[in-house]
Amino acid sequence: MKIAIAQLNPTIGDLTQNADQILQAVQAAAQQGVRLVLTPELSLCGYPPRDLLLRPRFITGMRQVLEDLAAKIPAGVAVLVGFAEPNEGASDRGEKPLFNSTAWLEAGQVKQVFHKQLLPTYDVFDEDRYFEPGRAVNHFQLTVEHGKTIHVGVTICEDLWNDEQFWGQRRYPNNPIALLKEAGVDLIVNLSASPFNAGKQQIREAMLSHSAARFDVPILYANQVGANDDLIFDGSSVAMGRRGSVMSRASAFQADVIMVNYDLRSQDFEPSTTRSRITNINEEIWSALVLGVEDYARKCGFTKAVIGLSGGVDSAMVAAIAAAALGPENVLAVLMPSPYSSEHSISDAEQLVRNLGIRGETLKIGALMKDYDQTLDELFADTEFGVAEENIQSRIRGNLLMAIANKFGHLLLSTGNKSEMAVGYCTLYGDMNGGLAVIADVPKTRVYDICHWLNQHPQCVLTDKKLPTQTTDPVIPANILTKPPSAELKPGQVDQDSLPSYDILDDILERLVQRHEAVEDIVAAGHNPAIVDKVIRLMCRAEFKRRQAPPVLKVTNRAFGTEWRMPIASRWSQNIAQLGTARSKATSVAP
């Protein structure tokens, strides 16, 4: 029996277009003799629909589109489609109004509906806000050749992620996979919308392999692909054999349809087309960011982007991503030198423009700086030149970029990295201006790594696009990668005047942000207590900036976006530093 995974890229809320996308995939699969087609979680509305789920017309419209789709499904094909179904009588029972559901479509009708059992509320997920957990064990009998049937177990995303043997603990009381095994299913399918972060596919496949082998049952995993706001979905759907081996894998970071044959005698999948899994972290992040920019622009109605190009590594990387995502002809890079800008920064930026084949414009801001100085001269009298004056340069640039974006309908891409965003080394209404923060989840040290990787693989970009280099030189000019990073807001300035070296800063930030390590543990790892204390204080003080930042494309397991929910008005930095000091003293006198 042939089964297809339709790895789709839906647009949130575009019900009719998403349904058409599903139908096209099903029709193509039907021509290949496929009996069952899987689509991703909430494939009809796209994931995550967030508060669109609170709109009654959205829910009723989804059901109507689902029924219309069912009527168009070719004869002989069964399709599993993700949608949100009302929970009738929920208010009387004190329950949530919806279920996160999967519909079995066949013979022109909705034959059966299955509800997601495990609802995640951690990381980027907030499903308990909208959905009631399903109580039933989800399975059905699918008729195949010669009147035979196979017993199919249905799970939805998180239902797979609760194996206590694999994780060492359970997040929820029950394990739907174990319950399906007890029900005697021959095959388990999973409709998923699992957001990307670097290295996650390796974990997914290890988990799927463990569950398949533990319960001696093959598993089909259909994952959403594409970017929706800050979340990127990498696809990489897989067919996992009952012994825990990958029998087929879909492409990463692009829509795909894969077909696998389920052998009725062995009750297992036969090996089929298997795309290579991306193993290089730099390539993986690069591919994710290109997809993130491409989809954010397309789904928001933009065709062109504008970037402030400084001659530094961050804006260089964002310009390269934009050129790969949108095409070089659709990217405008604006150089805005001030009297403090070095000659090499200007020449490096101009070289990058030539390398990428994008359009470059230069707007000098020296005269505007003088106008600001004269306007503020009386008010700022008898004060020393400082951060306020430095930031005026950044805000002039931000104003100019926003004017260009407004005038020509371009998407303004901000260029700050995660290290800067963490400690507030960025200017509100200046370099933070933009519609999308492209690399704000990429630490500075990783930015350098990716740029070095890109210079070694100048044509290793998403799908069939080739990076539009117009020169035999490296994509990112060598000088950009070797000169000390600087905001160039005053003479001779470098980042390390204000911050620890980036290798130290990024290690501390990873321990704080992603690993949630205590102060004493970070110090025990070899970091200077004073530097750790400074980083914590800078992080807390910058929270109000992060709250006003554009959407941040997520590529790590903890981005400054949907899953980052820190208070602004807080004394945590002072208290945690004191607690860390107290614990360190206590440890020093212990026997």
Structure overview:
- This protein is an alpha/beta fold and 591 residues long.
- Helix content is 38%, strand content 18%.
- The chain has 19 helices and 20 strands.
- The chain has helices at 15-30, 56-72, 90-93, 164-167, 176-182, 200-215, 281-300, 313-326, 343-356, 366-376, 387-408, 418-423, 444-456, 478-482, 502-514, 519-524, 529-541, 543-547, 572-589, and strands at 2-7, 34-38, 78-86, 98-106, 109-115, 139-143, 149-156, 187-192, 219-223, 225-228, 231-234, 238-240, 246-249, 256-263, 268-269, 305-309, 331-335, 359-362, 411-414, 436-437.
- The strands form 4 sheets. Strands 5-4-3-2-1-14-15 form a 7-stranded mixed β-sheet.
- Helix 10 packs across helix 11.
- The protein is elongated and about 90 Å long.
- The N and C termini lie far apart (68 Å).
- Mean pLDDT is 91; it is low at 461-471 and 580-591.
